[in-house]
Amino acid sequence: MKLSFTVNGQLQTVDVEPDTPLLWVIRDHLNLTGTKFGCGIAQCGACTVHLNGTPVRSCMMPASGIQNQNITTIEGVTESKLSAESQAITNAWEELAVVQCGYCQSGQIMSATALLKQNPKPTDKDIDNYMSGNICRCNTYVRIKKAIKLASDNLAIASVDSPIFYDASKVASSNHTATEAEGETHHGA
Ligand code: FES
Ligand code: FES
């Protein structure tokens, strides 16, 4: 089946079986390997990408569903910083040194970016609920939550400062540090 769709703003065409998971289209056919395989059954979130702006588990998404759709992968978020939310999230991730082994982090960032787009000022509970499908074996949940809140705060500052343009340098001095102790629990519970 010939499929045409957009990935990170670029038109792509592949010829695959209709039931090929989107994850393998992204990784094997487009060589975008930032999106990871974890469970393969939509339970861990490692394979999360955006389909028309909505997070989906690419391991369970058949290629037949992406015809003429817009896909965003972690490469689009981190290399192009496609939106104010993705820029704020990736800056906060770096500032708080969220990543440990990194395997789950593409999916975490894709979900966190979508969360801030839907809900620019999420509560702890909002974050726990939204991020609950993204599993981290390294237990970085406390830092993830802090980074989402930092990104949210920085977006709010930026929107007051300039409702049109987001300038990361204006919020780089917020001086947050990763100080959580060992023994983090899932989503800071
Ligand atoms: S690999 Fe897709 S949800 Fe785990
Ligand atoms: S950082 Fe290692 S699995 Fe999340």
Task: Walk me through this protein's architecture.
The protein is an alpha+beta fold. It has two domains: 2-76, Ubiquitin-like (UB roll) (Roll); 81-188, [2Fe-2S]-binding domain (DNA polymerase, domain 1), CATH 1.10.150. Helix content is 37%, strand content 12%. It has helices at residues 22-29, 74-80, 84-95, 105-118, 124-131, 141-161, and strands at residues 2-7, 10-15, 48-51, 54-57, 70-72. It has a five-stranded mixed beta sheet, sandwiched between helices. β3 (48-51) and β4 (54-57) form a beta hairpin. The model is unreliable at 166-189 (pLDDT under 50). Bound molecules: FE2/S2 (inorganic) cluster (FES) (2 copies). One FE2/S2 (inorganic) cluster (FES) binds at residues 37-40, 42-47, 57, 59.
CATH architecture of the largest domain: Orthogonal Bundle
Strand order of the largest sheet: 2-1-5-3-4
**Helix content class:** 25-40%
**If you compute it from the alpha carbons, what radius of gyration comes out, rounded to the nearest whole angstrom?**
17 Å
Strand count, sense and barrel status of the largest sheet are: 5 strands, mixed
Q: List the total number of helices.
A: 6
Number of strands: 5
CATH class placement of the largest domain: Mainly Alpha
| Structure ligands | FE2/S2 (inorganic) cluster
Overall 3D shape: globular
CATH topology of the largest domain: DNA polymerase, domain 1
> Could you give me the name of the CATH homologous superfamily of the largest domain?
[2Fe-2S]-binding domain
* Element-level helix/strand string: EEHEEEHHHHH
- Uncertain segments of ≥5 residues (pLDDT<50)? 166-189
| Structural class by secondary-structure content | alpha+beta
Mean pLDDT, as a whole number? 88
- How many distinct domains? 2
Residues in β-strands, percent: 5-15%
